[in-house]
Design brief:
The protein contains twelve helices and 14 strands. The chain is of the alpha+beta class. The chain is 30% helix and 19% strand.
């Protein structure tokens, strides 16, 4: 059984304590998010909740990660958590243990789409007709393969935080139309992490077409999940919890239940999250909306200063 007095002393070291309830089992702090005495930390259940922002922390490690990441190792020592070597849990034990994906070589025959060959011209036409802007094609280094395993496929590289390629998606588009994901551990991949500003709101979508069709050079915080799954074991969740981003989850219309589950899971990690609910607009996915996607954001995110600035930028184009 963990020592509640020691846990109380630990949280007192970085949160502003105000009062106790339930015979000292629950302590109230000034919430750094809303600056109100609404953050209740339960010392026995190891959970927390802000009654003003409706933020849940079903595991206090997310609260520590958000407001005192340098104290993760100390917290885990107090409650007796042991790290599991090689898993994302290492990151929650001690921030310095975060593991990043390995460098990946682009496939044989890869060429940037520059309009120099018939294949490049066909790929450019295919992408732009589906709503991906020319500036996105150039700035995200989208290319094609003219030989090898990925011959005639469009390649969407992902650039990791260290600047190198850590993942790519291939899509054949001439005589067949399907995706192939490079075989890596997706729970450790944050697609195009290099371009994400973790201090601004984030939109989560399913695939690269969804992400790129609603993006331009100024709208870079759209992250494709490479599917419709997300859990606390993903490094993406670790980053969202750490930086306290506002998040909108915008999955395809046929994944509405998964969208709801992801929203609930992120909220329970102390992350402000809303469901986009693409079905209310009678379209199948975000890619169909293209840049009009931003006109239909959930109200709480439309009111966000960061989102409003981005919307103004879009209307100027």
């Amino acid at each position: 059984m963990h020592d509640t007095d020691q846990i109380a002393e630990f949280f007192d070291s970085f949160l502003q304590f105000k009062r106790t309830y339930k015979n000292g089992e629950e302590r109230y702090y000034v919430c750094p998010e809303c600056n109100r005495v609404k953050l209740a930390v339960n010392l026995k259940k190891l959970k927390a909740h802000c009654w003003h922002d409706s933020l849940n922390y079903n595991d206090l490690k997310f609260l520590v990660l958000k407001y005192a990441p340098d104290k993760l190792a100390e917290y885990n020592k107090i409650i007796g958590t042991h790290r599991v070597s090689g898993s994302i849990e290492d990151a929650f034990y001690e921030e310095a243990l975060v593991k990043y994906p390995d460098r990946l070589k682009l496939p044989e025959g890869f060429k940037l789409i520059q309009g120099k060959t018939e294949l490049e011209l066909s790929a450019y036409k295919y992408l732009t007709e589906r709503g991906i802007r020319s500036d996105v094609i150039a700035s995200r280094y989208i290319g094609v393969c003219n030989e090898g395993k990925y011959k005639d496929a469009i390649i969407f590289p992902s650039f990791g935080i260290r600047g190198y390629v850590d993942f790519f998606v291939a899509r054949w588009f001439l005589n067949r139309d399907y995706y192939l994901y490079e075989s890596v551990e997706k729970s450790n991949i944050i697609f195009n992490e290099l371009f994400v500003d973790w201090h601004k709101p984030v939109v989560l979508v399913e695939g690269v077409f969804d992400a790129y069709c609603i993006s331009d050079l100024h709208m870079t915080n759209v992250i494709p999940l490479m599917g419709s799954s997300l859990s606390t074991e993903y490094r993406l969740v670790y980053n969202l919890a750490k930086y306290g981003n506002n998040v909108v989850v915008a999955l395809d219309n046929d994944a509405k239940n998964k969208e709801k589950r992801i929203v609930t899971m992120l909220r329970n990690c102390g992350i402000k999250t809303s469901a986009y609910d693409i079905g209310r607009l009678n379209v199948k996915d975000p890619a169909v909306l293209r840049m009009k996607f931003w006109d239909y954001l959930p109200k709480e995110h439309k009111d966000s200063t960061d989102i409003s600035i981005l919307e103004e930028r879009i209307r100027e184009l």
